[in-house]
Amino acid sequence: MLVSLRDICQIAEQKNMAVAAVNSASLEAIRAAIEVAEETRYPIIIQHAQGHESLVPLGCVGPIVTALAERSSAQICLNLDHCEDLSYARHALDLGFTGVMFDGSMLPYDRNVELSGYVAAMCSEYGAGLECELGSMGSREAGERDEGGTADEAGAIYTDPNQAQDFIERTALDILACSFGTVHGLYKGEAKLSYQVLTDIRDRVKVPLVMHGGSGLTDEQYRAAIDAGVRKINYYTYGVKFAGEAVRRMIDERVFADPSANVYWHDMTTTAHESLVKTFEHVVRVFSNGAEPFVI
User: Of 81, 103, 160, 200, which is the active-site residue?
Assistant: First the structure.
């Protein structure tokens, strides 16, 4: 069933867990996410980033996910990730998206507040939830393939807790994405997270918080962030990296056994799907933070 971003994060708040938010850049990823949610009985968020429009168009992914989610027993949110254009957000909501992440983090503060408030009103019309970002991880969602490194190397600006309180109160958002040491893409060094940023925000305003750049951390780092108030964790880069490595191994093994052997496209997509299921199941269970599986 389709549920709103607001509701799915309130479930996570009540159970002191985080919901995995995985990107929908392929049918294999969409299928894997839904299958894992049904098998584990934990909710999941399927996301389409505006920066991934070249990988799969919004007009394709929206109808596919809504159709599959509506007939699924799992609780599924379809969220628009890192949207920077109001018209793109409106189009997604018209297609059935139940959440929007408006990213005005690169704008001047007052302009970010103004546009975020506008998107909040838009989401309210559709009963959808709103996520906004304050602070910057430096690296961008649709940056270079190997973008990452450390937060300091990427030029991150950690979220200011006092500004976060003002931002939340003025925009009427549902959840807030914070910069506290994670990065988009692949880590090239050890991740150093400032959990104090999260706890300071939560001391001021009780809203669910979001971790972007959630790939590449240890299970202990995930759990510490959840205990500090993170209720949604975006996970993409390492999942597709592992799937690519699985495809490479499959091809290498087949060609090694028989250099003339054919490798068909469905061999690659099947292998990728199996890898994504394994990876998504692991992170969903870790992000559950010990909460019992459940259904509505």
Answer: 81
